[in-house]
Amino acid sequence: MKTKVFDQLSHKERKILEISFFLLLYMICTIGYTFFSFRSNAIQGIDDLNFHLGRVRGMEDIIKSPINFKTFGAVGYPINLFYGWITIYPMYLLTKVFGQLVMGYNIYFFLLTFATFIICHFSFDKVIKNSFGSCLFSLCYTMSTYRSMDIYSRAAVGESISLSLIPLIFCSFYLLITKKNHPWKTLAVSMSLLIYSHVLSTILASAYLFVIFSIYMSYKIYYQIKNKIEFDFLEIVKNLFKAVMMTLLLSCFFYLPMFEQFRFQSLSLPQIYSLDSTALLFGTQLIEGALNNDFQSRSIGIVLFVFLIILFFKFKEIDLLAKLSFLIACFSLFLSTNLFPWSILQKTKLNIIQFPWRVNGFSSFFIAIAFSIFISSYIIAHGAWIKKGLIALAAGIFPCTINYASIVNLRHDVATLPYSEEVVIENIIPKIPPRHPPDYLAKNLHSKINIISEKQLVINGNKVNYDHKTSATTIQYDVNSPKSGIVEVPIYKYKGYKIMVDGQRVPLYDQASPIINFKVDSGPHHIVVGYEYTKLAKLSALISVAGVFILIILSIYDLLKRYRLKSRNSV
After folding, report:
1. How far apart are the first and last CA of the chain?
2. What angle do CA 253, 50, 90 make, to 5 degrees?
3. 550 closest CA partner among 255, 256, 196, 250
4. Are 253 and 540 contacting, i.e. CB atoms less than 8 angstroms apart?
């Protein structure tokens, strides 16, 4: 009876019903996925937690200035010039709406998880045109062990956001190069958001895209030449060029100000680790970690490991896209381990990735892709409607159940930050040591490190007493100078600082110094140090906003063009 009623529905009504079902399913899964964070009133995960909470608190006046003097030791660390803030700004807004940092953090990841389910489903459905397969991919990838580890163990906010964008990036890229569609605008927007979220993930994603493009184009050109078929390579290149140009336009508000700071002075890069020592041990960490579904192992988890084994034995039966995804996944797993000779690359620019196991986010993505395509093909080729539903349900419940159990177990192993410590958060964040994080500081900072670490105010090389008042955008000093000379204050020097002495703006005295310094006359002085966006930063913001308007206009134009074409065809 139900089947007959369903068959009587129009295509549009079926589509609405189907979408409603998946949205409800993903909402239920999201509630289950984040349930313990809300129940225990806690943030789970400690590795990068203080760093990211400091970033969020530092957005109090982000529109006026990227530096907040209430955070990161009150020494003027411009965290938001080197770490994209646009994609985590909603977390700050949520903390303001709910009045609690912890609540805002957890609601943000609730919404991010729900958005990841939706992004995975509808972007992959454009590729395979199969709702069951898209649903399975969405469940497997969103609930993957690596993504859960990022959220619940490492508290890696930037990388967690990037994992939500990866499906949209790769699916739109696939559609573009296969000419099934030309979603260069979608690719540009998603890549821009990735740049604003996590630079290292952008570098890795770009490398994977380049490999996929090279493999696919080589195969396509060989196939076309062999069969003497004309191949419009230039059209693909043209659309990729559009995507790249639009990405550069939309994201220049991030990279131009950052490059400006590197030109202003010599800065340190993110901390470099031994790639050999941070790569996974093949047996104890990659394999055993996967079998135990251990979040601390940085492996792929038991669900995707089982799927990988199934794909290995079914390799001949899966289609070309699934084969390619499987092989890329295997190579990624190999890259994450000490079997790969990382020591060769230790002294190259590739050492910036810090931890080879970062690639397991991509390993998880490609395994989920390959297995979902395999299951989709199997469902189409075998069984009735009920059997299809049972297969999809079983395959979907498996990752959800395993992941849920692992999150429960993790709560006993990883420290949490409860609501009762909200007051402590207020005291912890301003006191994060000035050497944390050590990234993007002046390379010659060692000569003045005592002034920074001990919060000294120095005049002509001598420490003096001072009163100070700190706000989000400025630090004010009241000091009595025994004689005229050079004042050095405990604030890192970057391009964009504005120094006011007794209401008059003064320039830096020593441009080579890694900290703020300037001349004063003898006597009492009221000093105000603040930071404002540079002219280039303001210009880049306008360019990126202009890019958004250009994108909107182009999208409207394309919609009108399709509408006119549809109207013409209907006539």
Report:
1. 38
2. 45
3. 250
4. yes
Nearest to 275 by CA among 347, 355, 341, 340: 355
The model's pLDDT over 357-400, given as tens digits with 9 standing for 90+, comes to 999 999 999 999 999 999 888 777 665 555 555 555 565 566 66
Are 159 and 153 spatial neighbours (Cβ–Cβ below 8 Å)? Answer: no
As a whole number of angstroms, the distance between CA 513 and CA 500 comes to 18
Half-sphere exposure of 328 (CA within 13 A, CB side): 29
From 113, 71, 88, select the one nearest 428 (Cα to Cα): 71
Res. 436 pLDDT band, cuts 50 70 90:
very low
pLDDT for 176-231, tens place per residue?
Answer: 988 777 789 999 999 999 999 999 999 999 999 999 999 888 887 777 777 766 66
Which candidate, 303, 308, 370, 369, places its Cα nearest to that of 334?
308
The Cα–Cα gap between 407 and 149 comes to: 9
Per-residue pLDDT at 274: 86
3-state secondary structure of 244: helix
* 405: Cβ contacts below 8 Å, ≥ 6 apart: 293
Cβ(498)–Cβ(532) below 8 Å: yes
- What is d(CA 344, CA 204) in angstroms, rounded to the nearest whole number? 18
Residue 528 β-bridge partners: 476, 500
Q: In sequence order, what are the beta bridge partners of 500? A: 505, 528
Q: Which residue shows structure tokens 């006539």?
A: 571
**417: β partners:** 43
Element spanning 405, H or E? helix 385-410
Helices (H), 270-384: 275-278, 288-291, 301-313, 320-335, 360-381
Q: Find, among 289, 191, 205, the residue nearest to 247 by Cα.
A: 191
Rounded to whole angstroms, the Cα distance separating 453 from 491 reads 10
Amino acid at 288: E
Separation between Cα atoms, residue 157 and residue 446, nearest integer Å: 30
Long-range contacts from 457-466, C-beta under 8 angstroms, 24+ separation: 457/487, 457/488, 457/489, 457/490, 458/487, 458/488, 459/485, 459/486, 459/487, 459/488, 459/520, 460/485, 460/486
Q: At residue 531, what are phi and psi to the nearest 5 degrees?
A: -125, 140
CA distances from 394 to 132, 309, 313, 506 (A): 12, 17, 20, 69
Q: With contact defined as beta carbons under 8 Å apart, do 431 and 330 qualify? A: no
**What are the tens digits of pLDDT across the range 137-152?**
999 899 888 998 888 8
